[in-house]
Amino acid sequence: MSLVSLSDLLAGARPDTHCVAIHNGQQITLAQLRSDVSHNADRLSNRSIRRAAVICNDGYWFIVGVLALVKIGAEVILPPTRKPARAQSPRRG
Predict the structure, then answer these.
(1) Within 13 Å and on the Cβ side, how many CA atoms surround 47?
(2) Nearest to residue 37, comparing CAs of 7, 71, 6, 3?
(3) Is-contact 64 72, C-beta < 8 A?
(4) Number of H helices and number of E strands within the chain?
(5) Nearest alpha carbon to residue 56 among 44, 47, 65
């Protein structure tokens, strides 16, 4: 296994046709991943998101969310569980 920097992954160090995932039985190419990350990064940036929790049942969309937040320089929060009660902010007394 080789490591690829995030900037290389999102900027083009590998060919666009490189398969990076299988989602719902379909191959996801690097071009599609880049497109999904850019689209979501643009949406988050337009809303001035600077910190967000990523909670998702789907592994592909989870990584798209994480990469989109990283791309815009936002703080990524990864809760230990996706249960709604655990994902809420702790109460302050």
Answers:
(1) 12
(2) 71
(3) no
(4) 4, 4
(5) 65
Q: Give the residue among 73, 23, 18, 83 at the shortest CA–CA distance from 51.
A: 73
The more confidently predicted of residues 8 and 29 is 29
For 68-80, write each residue's pLDDT tens digit: 999 999 999 988 7
Report pLDDT digits (tens) over 20-55. Answer: 888 889 999 999 999 999 999 999 999 999 999 998
Write 43-47 long-range contacts (CB < 8 A, 24+).
44/68, 44/69, 44/72, 44/74, 45/72
End-to-end CA distance of the chain: 48
What's the whole-model pTM score?
Answer: 0.76
Mean pLDDT of 80-87: 60
**Distance set, CA 35 to CA 13, 77, 91 (Å):** 15, 23, 38
